[in-house]
Every structure is written in structure tokens, then in C-alpha cells.
Write a structure and sequence with these properties.
The chain is α/β, with parallel strands linked by helices. It has helices spanning about 10-20, 30-40, 55-65, 85-95, 115-145, 165-185, 205, 220-230, 235-240; strands at about 20-25, 45-50, 70-75, 100, 105-110, 145-150, 190-195, 210, 230-235, 250-255, 260. Helix 2 packs across helix 9 (about 235-240) and helix 5 runs parallel beside helix 6 (about 165-185). Mean pLDDT is about 80; it is low at about 220-235, about 240-250 and about 255-265.
Length: about 260
């Protein structure tokens, strides 16, 4: 919405409904997670950020606090079920209204250099790392018959991509989990949204791990070109994702080719 333009009734209702919601975002300290956090802040939500790196969490918390947010930062490894607890968030905010399962990793290598451990690591982060937070928050959502689970998957979970087999297998699994949860939990008043983004400039190339002959790896050159452009995220896409709370469960495919808003890391 452009500055100065009148607010539509739908936009007003959306802003009022989501105001003061407590939103838990995994992988929320950087990249798409941080971009989403900023969008949720913009519409008045309270935030719980979960990530492994305590220093990155502290920087993200400072960034969001300066934007007027109420933020709880929780160091957490989503691959470890014992660490994935919502007690602290629930005690702090009274409840968790929305959980955004966003944590992810990228491993780039041909099958000839991919190991079983690579597949296990990808599944730990992007399948179990979505399942554990969902499992942790479901009891309170079921008790009040409301809540929203948002699973950030990938176009790689719909179309398999060469040299990204661990990633695509994990994302396919996450899509299956999310669609199954949607079918089962809808009757209990819990919404589940499967988000399937296309390519987004969110800084993932910085964290991507390359194996094999990197100089011959086509995806390495793609990420290098992105690095030269800068770290961007689609303002339109992140704004759309922050509005999923008010929809019925569905699969949302986002086209983030036109990235126009900078999110400094």
C-alpha cells in the first residue's frame, strides 16, 4: 500500500485481527525469517525468534526492537526435539498464535559426492525442524481450537533439482507433512498453510555449502551473481506471507522474481 493511499476495509480488518498476535518464527535471525519478522512487526505482532546462533539472534532482536517490536529471542536447534519447547514463549506472551517453520539449509553437490549424512542433515533441519515446533505448539492450539501453522517449503519441494537432492528430498517431505496436517487439523480450528516460494534473494547463497568441483558447479555461479547484486527479499512476497493468518489452509506459491525491497543482514 502506497504512503498516503486510503486503507481498504479488508486491509483494516486484517490489521486489527492480527494485532498483538504472538508469532514464533524458526530461522528468524536472518534472511527470509528476519524479513518476515519485520513484516509481522509492521502490523503489530509480538515475536518469538528461534535460531541456533545467539549472536545473530541478538542482532535480529535489536533490529526489531528498534522498529517498535516486542521480541523474545530463544536460542534453539530445531533438529533437537528436547530444545524445541514453547513454554518460555507461552509464559512470556500467554500463547503462541502463529508458528512459521522457516529454518532451512542449502547443500549443493552432485550425487557422486553426496553422502547419507547429507540427506540426514537436510531432513533434520527441513522436515523434523518443521515437525518438532508444530508438535510443540499443537496442544495449546487444540485446546483453544485456533492457531495457524505456516510451513515455508520451496519450489524444490514440487520439482526436483539436480545437485540439490538432499534439499529437494527434505522439501518434498515438508510439503507432504504440511498438506497432511492441513487435511487433519482443519476440523479442529487450526489452519495450516504450505508456502512454496520460488527463487528469492534472501542471503541463502552466503550460507550454502558446496561440495565436489565448485568451479564447475553451475549453481555456484548463480549464487555468485546474486552476491554481486546484494541481499534482497521481495517486499510484496513477505507482506503476502505475513497475511496468511487470515486465510483458510491452502498452498501459497510465491513469485519473488521482482525483488524490490532491501533487507540488510
Amino acid at each position: 500500500m502506497n504512503a498516503g493511499s486510503p486503507e481498504t476495509p479488508a486491509r483494516f480488518w486484517y490489521r486489527i485481527c492480527i494485532l498483538r498476535y504472538a508469532v514464533l518464527i524458526t530461522g528468524g535471525a536472518r534472511g527470509l525469517g528476519l524479513a518476515l519478522a519485520r513484516e509481522f512487526v509492521r502490523v503489530g505482532c509480538r515475536l518469538v525468534l528461534a535460531a541456533r546462533d545467539a549472536q545473530e539472534l541478538a542482532r535480529a532482536r535489536q533490529d526489531l526492537t528498534q522498529r517498535g517490536a516486542e521480541v523474545l529471542a530463544v536460542p534453539c536447534d530445531v533438529t533437537n526435539q528436547e530444545q524445541v519447547r514453547v513454554d518460555q514463549a507461552t509464559q512470556h506472551f500467554g500463547r503462541v498464535d502463529i508458528v512459521v517453520n522457516n529454518a532451512g539449509i542449502i547443500q549443493v553437490d552432485p550425487m557422486s559426492t553426496t553422502t547419507v549424512e547429507d540427506f540426514a542433515t537436510a531432513l533434520d533441519v527441513m522436515f523434523w525442524g518443521a515437525f518438532y515446533p508444530t508438535l510443540a505448539v499443537l496442544p495449546q492450539m487444540r485446546a483453544r481450537r485456533s492457531g495457524h501453522v505456516v510451513n515455508i517449503t520451496s519450489i524444490g519441494g514440487m520439482v526436483s533439482v539436480p545437485h540439490l537432492l538432499p534439499y529437494t528430498c527434505a522439501k518434498f517431505a515438508a510439503v507432504g507433512l504440511s498438506e497432511g496436517l492441513r487435511a487433519e487439523l482443519g476440523q479442529e480450528g487450526i489452519r495450516v498453510t504450505t508456502v512454496v516460494p520460488g527463487l528469492m534473494r534472501t542471503g541463502s547463497y552466503v550460507q550454502a555449502r558446496f561440495q565436489g568441483q565448485q568451479e564447475c558447479e553451475p549453481l555456484a555461479s548463480v549464487y555468485a551473481r546474486r552476491a554481486s547484486v546484494g541481499t534482497l527479499a521481495s517486499g510484496a512476497a513477505t507482506s503476502s506471507l505475513s497475511r496468511v493468518y487470515c486465510t483458510t489452509g491452502f498452498t501459497l506459491l510465491t513469485n519473488a522474481a521482482a525483488c524490490h525491497q532491501r533487507y540488510d543482514q
